[in-house]
Amino acid sequence: MSAELEGLHEECGIFGVWGHPDAARLTYFGLHALQHRGQEGAGIVSNDNGELHGYRGLGLLSQVFNDNSQIERLKGNAAIGHVRYATSGSGTVDNIQPFLFRFYDGDFALAHNGNLTNGRQLRRVLEETGGIYHSNSDTEVLMHLIRRSSKRTFIEQLKEALNTVHGGFAYMLMKNDCMIGALDPNGFRPLSLGQMTNGAYVLASETCALDIVSARFIRDIQPGELIIINDDGYTIEKYADNTQKAICSMEFIYFARPDSNIYGVNVHSARKRAGARLAQESPVEADMVIGVPNSSLSAAAGYAEASGLPNEMGLVKNQYVARTFIQPTQELREQGVRMKLSAVRGVVEGKRVIVIDDSIVRGTTSRRIVQLLKEAGAAEVHMRIASPPLRYPCYYGIDISRTSELIAAHKSVQEICEFIGADSLAYLSIDGLVETVGLQEDAPYGGLCVAYFNGDYPTSLGDYEKEFLESITPEDKERLTRFA
Amino acid sequence: MSAELEGLHEECGIFGVWGHPDAARLTYFGLHALQHRGQEGAGIVSNDNGELHGYRGLGLLSQVFNDNSQIERLKGNAAIGHVRYATSGSGTVDNIQPFLFRFYDGDFALAHNGNLTNGRQLRRVLEETGGIYHSNSDTEVLMHLIRRSSKRTFIEQLKEALNTVHGGFAYMLMKNDCMIGALDPNGFRPLSLGQMTNGAYVLASETCALDIVSARFIRDIQPGELIIINDDGYTIEKYADNTQKAICSMEFIYFARPDSNIYGVNVHSARKRAGARLAQESPVEADMVIGVPNSSLSAAAGYAEASGLPNEMGLVKNQYVARTFIQPTQELREQGVRMKLSAVRGVVEGKRVIVIDDSIVRGTTSRRIVQLLKEAGAAEVHMRIASPPLRYPCYYGIDISRTSELIAAHKSVQEICEFIGADSLAYLSIDGLVETVGLQEDAPYGGLCVAYFNGDYPTSLGDYEKEFLESITPEDKERLTRFA
Amino acid sequence: MSAELEGLHEECGIFGVWGHPDAARLTYFGLHALQHRGQEGAGIVSNDNGELHGYRGLGLLSQVFNDNSQIERLKGNAAIGHVRYATSGSGTVDNIQPFLFRFYDGDFALAHNGNLTNGRQLRRVLEETGGIYHSNSDTEVLMHLIRRSSKRTFIEQLKEALNTVHGGFAYMLMKNDCMIGALDPNGFRPLSLGQMTNGAYVLASETCALDIVSARFIRDIQPGELIIINDDGYTIEKYADNTQKAICSMEFIYFARPDSNIYGVNVHSARKRAGARLAQESPVEADMVIGVPNSSLSAAAGYAEASGLPNEMGLVKNQYVARTFIQPTQELREQGVRMKLSAVRGVVEGKRVIVIDDSIVRGTTSRRIVQLLKEAGAAEVHMRIASPPLRYPCYYGIDISRTSELIAAHKSVQEICEFIGADSLAYLSIDGLVETVGLQEDAPYGGLCVAYFNGDYPTSLGDYEKEFLESITPEDKERLTRFA
Amino acid sequence: MSAELEGLHEECGIFGVWGHPDAARLTYFGLHALQHRGQEGAGIVSNDNGELHGYRGLGLLSQVFNDNSQIERLKGNAAIGHVRYATSGSGTVDNIQPFLFRFYDGDFALAHNGNLTNGRQLRRVLEETGGIYHSNSDTEVLMHLIRRSSKRTFIEQLKEALNTVHGGFAYMLMKNDCMIGALDPNGFRPLSLGQMTNGAYVLASETCALDIVSARFIRDIQPGELIIINDDGYTIEKYADNTQKAICSMEFIYFARPDSNIYGVNVHSARKRAGARLAQESPVEADMVIGVPNSSLSAAAGYAEASGLPNEMGLVKNQYVARTFIQPTQELREQGVRMKLSAVRGVVEGKRVIVIDDSIVRGTTSRRIVQLLKEAGAAEVHMRIASPPLRYPCYYGIDISRTSELIAAHKSVQEICEFIGADSLAYLSIDGLVETVGLQEDAPYGGLCVAYFNGDYPTSLGDYEKEFLESITPEDKERLTRFA
Question: CB–CB of D226/D159 below 8 Å?
């Protein structure tokens, strides 16, 4: 909840299908299952015998595709789609993906989940030699690299381009004769392959989108892999030499849907184990456990079971969206907060409660939650966070833009506890996180990226190196050996 | 979930505030907390120094009030509002409440939650003597009765009218100089009084709407009571002699929000106790308990704790609305169902699961849930329903229009179990329901209405008597002593 | 143009068809041809084998019926429709007609063009005996009178009601088994009967709406007549004894479309004759004649032909609507005016121009027109108005609410000329108007109502008597013998 | 009217202002005056101290800018805007101009009125070397050429690019420090410079847009000229050597607003002279002259004055737009046509009428007009067209895509007369057109392009040469000496 309310946003979700007469509609379904990964724009491009048709718009999927005719027009046996979280200031339809490019030698569509660390540099170089961009995003860079490549075949051009871009990316591409997925050498973002009963292949950011179209899971795309799907089936190639799995741990903690599996690990179960571990690491005497809905209910169940305390519904989330323009006065603003979350007086009154939340970003939401519970009569409020403290920005696709906004970058756990007004506060340890996710990869942190917790980024930071160094403390600089 | 998906709808929610300069905005907030009681229309009437202003429309609150100016125009220190579930065929704005009447001697607004059992008769009599109606609802009947009363004062006219209408009703009325609430002699619908810190009084269908505006709960309006609020405070009068509490048990089972208290009983806690009781009444050997989100999570927690089984997230509800017009083909229709609910393969695969749901209406949703879980690999699916079988229609404000649509009216529990494809099925007993709600009123069924379970209606059925008798079996007729 | 820009509005247009399978669609077409009579709301009620279906909304016809499904749902072989000009403050959908009433003994729809002079009195009396209203308009009064009548048959009840209401009215009613039109005893508003090739009968405010559905004109409904159309054909009855034709002269001057005929007189031709007469009454030496588009082009053509001067396009009207919210600064406001009307420099520069306009209400638009032409280089601007000075309000259905807003009520022609900055100004005489319309009825003013020019109202003023007497000068009172 | 109804569309209108604090709002006003040049999309880009902000959308200006906030966000002292007619199949927002490009070295906006004859070739060459396009239009080509130029300064790069593109173009460009207009070497499209009282400079497709913002006309941009406007004022340069004026004669005949002046010639006056010339060239005995509203009213006035016949309003155009989705049955389709145009029975019945129209494209509209008039009782209908027969496509910016759609390309005047059902038909001669426009340029056809009438294109046809040669007759090929 804190992650959600305090602006920790995923950049995107992608979905594609090859080999089904209802491809665009299936893509709509798939994107619907991925809507939690981006709510500010959506688009679909279909492949109609080699000719691509596209439609995209701002807002939720149901707002963009608000008329059956939009899907109807996207004819063809293959389609790719994208849901986007738009960073502020870029909220124009020009940035909504998939991007559709039309060339004399064919149409081309491109969708991207992630963030490049050398996007700015590449864009500059390309502009200096005549490159023209229509969007703010660095997604177009890949298209320019492909078109300028001197390699002979398209796949060779693509591989060259994929080796030129750095950072976090899951790309989905549609050409007249094939659909392609590609993952960066660290595999920061998940991407899974499935197959429908009619034989159609499906690629999706999460397995929950395979389920919604009743596709059978085949395998996860691995770091540095490229998958090419056409009418003959699929082939997977490794395009990069140095790969090392470092999947975004926030996928397990907050972003991914609980029904998704990532590299074989069910997200709900991982969260429940994290909650149980948190109970072991940071027990506290209390009457009940309360999860902040909806994202922290799994961890709360784990904490409750491990601690032997009852798991109660002490906070209720309003399932209906309130208009933000109903601008309250200062007095009413406080009441506006209550429109999203309510404390259940009948449950918490006079009780010592342990509140489980997924994370703390700025701390303002946690403070409100504590306040709501205390106003509803809770005797004690103990906050337990099912992830380590967020201290550093992410440069691979999560919108944690500035260190200065992260409360744990500047305050100790005790100071945060005071700020939010809780009776006690504890976070899960990094070891606890790694072990309860349990990927068991032969890689640092068991194959997880935990850079936002400890600054240990698995790649060079490229465009961001300078601003990162300026934002951290001298102690950090010394500690982070990679900068030695 | 089954109740939600299978068309068991509440008719309305009402809210009013007297004595706050931001009355219309507070009413918007209050209705937001009551949105679950009606999603097909909303309206607000404000009282601007005796002159009433109204705005209403079709759809969710956020669709009706989609522009700040609409609230801005509703000036005044008092307001009442209404969210409505529109029965099919009547989906025009004419039926959206509050109704606003303008007379030479003042304006008048009226909102209604419930259903009259003698509405048709009264309407007919009134029409025969020149009465004119603008809506299909029987809400207007009260206004006609008031205006035709020969009593001297408005309150006397109102009392006469309230004694003339029969059935289930919570009325909210706004006049130039007062705001009025009134409850039927059985108190089928909840209605609670609260007070804000500035002294303003608030009336609402549920206490969760008091909480959202930070109003302190004062008391529940009791059956047969009339509350008049004006600038001097409030007065409560009993307008009816024969009252007997029979609050709708579906409020506890499904309709009300878990954070609401009804006659002092917290809804979440009552549901949790019902789940625990269900575990005692109908235990089964299994690996885990799964609640159907969101309405059955409380009962599932109760069942899990009582049975000692882990409470798992085996079903996930998609929080985003999908466009219904995205009409799938027959093959895709099955997938369309998955857009609302997903089974979590990583949790249920190979496991024996107990699924807790709030109720079964037609049975089609339960069948799909069982199917989803089995497809996701569940070894056994045991369905447990946290309420008794629904067998009879409600005539007091819930939209269970026809006995023929209720699967339990025609099939035995064993037959239903076969229909939904579960490995076992059990319902909560009526005694179990009454005891776990625990109102402890000196009234039949502890003050609950359980007529939809056993046909024992607490009032005569008036307009509906004939159709009810035609719809039931001879055995029923014999059993139901009231028809003796 | 001045009439249009300065707020001289018709109240409504009505249309009905009986006996065609596409009745609602034809009604849409008919209302489209009548859109100039009201742009702020529209509605259609169809008769589907005795059951009435309705749809209505705020705005232009194309905004209200913005989706084919709305028309599709209005099934049936008969329909009536209405376009409305909503007076300020009453802009809610509740006031949009036709009103649809549902009674135990059948549905009923009612539409009204005009204004009652005893509407307030009747409403008060009806309210005092229990009558309830949903709209601000006095249209509902007729329905109440019908329903309360003690007469035996519906037609007798209707006739009684029609004799009870006074003022200006053309009513259109739809019942399960017939469609009815009725005109007040003075026939202030036009209403014409036509027949389609398939035999269907059509009633419309103007003959241009008969033309759009290719209906052959049969006859005008006469003052005090009632027409009943059913499957057997039509019958016309006289329901009132004292009738005297006094058709609104503004219909000829401004409201009606030039292609309509009223009582056999073509509106364009009448305007052209008025322009010619104006040339005789008020000639002036000049280089060209300019009509203010679009309403004054006919009169300008008449003036030009009679004077022998060329008829030039010296003013151009922008056919596209500009958003009024594009709020200009004070400097830009002047430019905003130019968005509706432009002077043609290439035509008027250095020329002496005669500008023909239909009327002057407040005078502000005329002032701007003179200014536009002078800025474009016109050497002289002579304003000629093709109607007499507007001095008194209309109580029969035109929105001239207050004498105080009419410049000619307070200023002499010479003073108005100075106010608008013209080099000369002249109006058509009342005699000129009467003779050029040329109805040749044996009635005062040849069958025209000219009350807004001379205060000689053809009926008592009822509700408005007092405010009229207070608004006029002592000289007026003496002159107007009816008040003697 | 025929031009309008039969799909003869202008491609665009452009407008720009430099040096006014309300630049975007003024651009809205200017585009409003140019709305007749394109109704399917609109956009504005403002220059806020060197940073460009843009907004664009599909539909009319009032639909795109439907909220004041959109204009409010376009801050800055300069702005350019564009209204677009979108050719079928390309109706996506991607093609709406101005295009906004963001480079590391600054933002850039570009708008284009016209059509390139070598756009396809250039696009192909640019794509082959890595160029990427986001729209279907060939407007982007100019941007690519500029960015790839090896010239040193931006103006030199621009001049090189302008000399590389061929065909018809009026470009408007916005950079951080200047606003630029450029016209092709033939000046197919008009572009005029004006100045506001505060000193701000304005460039617009037509002078009517200067008038709407009260800008004083300074001069027309001449063929092959480039105008650069910045804070120091404006400079005009000739960028091309071989220029020859060939302004599109359809601007005078149909496209431009009657209040605009093109190269000093008032459009209304030119049309009126054309009508008078037509009366001399093709007189006929009749009772009256009727102009098809609105575009042919000037020519009708000229014909009437020259022939001494009265100019009557025999056809009325409905000023309100009807929804096209109100799909009539075959029977009703005929009536649907009447929703745009009505014949005035009261005027034409029994009369011999001369109908003046601007042009005939497919002939279907003319046929309907004749039919409407005959049904309304006209005794004879003589059609007179105020332009020569349309026989060839335009490649410079008018949407006459195919010869096969032009009735005069395949039928003689006599055959067309029979097709439309008129009693006689005559067109204006090319000489008559040239002389009545009267530009008196020392250039073929007096400086007009008349290629759609006689195939004499003033430039090579580039991309279109092959398809043109295939579409014409052998006689044409022989006649057209340029192909010799």
Answer: yes
